[in-house]
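Quick question, first post here. What does this chain look like in 3D?
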Amino acid sequence: MRNRIKHVFFDLDHTLWDFDKNSDLAFIKIFKEHTIDLEISEFLEVYKPINTAYWNKYRNDEVSKSKLRYGRLKDTFDSLNYDITDLEINKISEVYIESLADHNYLLPNSKSILDYLFSKYKLHIITNGFEEVQLQKIVSSNIQSYFSKIITSESVGVKKPNPIIFNEALKRANALACESIMIGDNIEADIYGALESGFSAILFNYHKISPPKEITTIDNLIELKILL
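> Answer (accepted):
Ran it through. Tokens below.
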């Protein structure tokens, strides 16, 4: 694989950037500042699957960006029977997005594998996250210098796994699909999307799923040293 690859495209959240840890820290800060009278652990236990479901809908164009931001919080507070106004929910939604990039934890071995790959390949990011916050995350975690191109779904107008975003990424990176590989945590958006666009792909199995045997899978980013 390494002999023909020239461009390595990474997903960001749950692949390099420790979304769960940074998100938890953002909510802890918000609950304290806004005196939300809920146990944060109880809130997060309910919120996380709701958030995942909303992101799946957003990826499939079933909900808008604003509906995702509001709905995931509204549904969580409703599930917990917590009395809160729409105005407060919208405010928390805004502050949460602003607070995410205040925290900059990366997943284990992110920096070391980027150091290893940087001298061997052109590195890029393709992310479905919101444009304004994704760029802040990359800067706050001090990894922007590794990447030649950062492609967000908002800048392209479609989301992974739509082939348009992968083709646009190739165009911006001046890359060929046969010389490119995608590394990400979402088997539908990152892996199948990339494979259907002619890329190679490696699943970073952050979510501990059981992927098909034909999917190249790693459990730790450091394993990329064996493959690339």
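The chain has two domains: 7-18+106-227, 19-100.
The chain is about 50% helix and 10% strand.
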